[in-house]
Automatic annotation (TrEMBL):
PROSITE patterns hit by this protein: OMPR_PHOB, RESPONSE_REGULATORY
4-aspartylphosphate modifications at: 54
Lyase among keywords: no
CDD domains according to UniProt: trans_reg_C
Keywords: DNA-binding, Phosphoprotein, Transcription, Transcription regulation
Record's protein name: Sensory transduction protein RegX3
Domain OmpR/PhoB-type positions: 138-233
Coiled coil residues, start to end: none
Length: 236
């Protein structure tokens, strides 16, 4: 996912960019409100999935920038600021911010909020998800020898059907729809099991091991140590 980080403090931005990159984000850093607005122009490249917007910018107030962003794009905006008073939070949300994070914050909470606003936006985006034809048909996901049929929930390897449990299929489908992207353990648990990470971690590990065994492709799902998992699309 492309993420626009609007932060005038280079030291803060560098640390945050490194953490976000480690978790699979492609980060663009804007140091002012004007830089942020320029980055969001339609001809500036692929769209951003989320904007992290600091309110203390050198050229204009972050609230003003948020209002301008909302007028030109529906990209989710998360305000990141030291302003903890309720009035500021309400003002930001009324301007169109999707979430409001107060400094200092826990990095895992920030990641969870980024993924949460992304899911909410995707759920209301008709173009989200696998490409489909006008009649609603979902073409299969093909990852080398692996074929995943989303409507029928069937998986095959080199043409041979592989029997998966419901959760195994949901887990594989989640990873396969964004090959190469690192999914945090907490995010996977939330998406597939619809619950929190606590007490469910071992279940995820067991399902990952089972998928690797059933597909007979141990390298298909890579463990990103200390973070989570990603699907490595095979060649051929």
């Amino acid at each position: 996912m492309r993420l626009l980080l609007v932060e005038d403090d280079n030291h803060v931005a560098a640390a945050l960019s490194a953490m976000l990159s480690k978790h699979g984000f492609e980060v663009t850093h804007a140091r002012s409100g004007e830089e942020a607005l320029q980055a969001l122009l339609p001809d500036s490249g692929a769209p951003f999935g989320v904007v992290l917007l600091d309110l203390g910018l050198p050229d204009q107030d972050g609230f003003e920038v948020c209002g301008k962003i909302r007028k030109r794009t529906a990209t989710p905006v998360i305000m990141v600021t030291a302003r903890a008073d309720v009035r500021s939070r309400i003002h930001g949300l009324n301007l169109g911010a999707d979430d409001y994070v107060v400094k200092p914050y826990d990095t895992m909470e920030l990641l969870a909020r980024i993924h949460a606003v992304s899911r909410r936006t995707a759920a209301h985006d008709p173009g989200h998800g696998p490409e489909e034809s006008p009649d609603g048909f979902h073409p299969p996901l093909r990852l080398g020898p692996v074929t995943i049929e989303l409507p029928t929930r069937q998986v095959s390897v080199n043409g041979t059907t592989v029997s998966l449990t419901r959760k195994e299929f949901d887990l594989l489908a989640l990873l396969a729809q964004r090959p190469g992207v690192v999914f945090r353990r907490e995010q996977i648990i939330s998406e597939v099991w619809r619950t929190s990470w606590e007490g469910t971690g071992r279940t995820l590990e067991v399902h990952i091991a089972s998928l690797r065994s059933k597909l007979r492709m141990p390298a298909l799902i890579e463990t990103v140590r200390g973070v989570g998992y990603r699907l490595v699309a095979p060649v051929g």
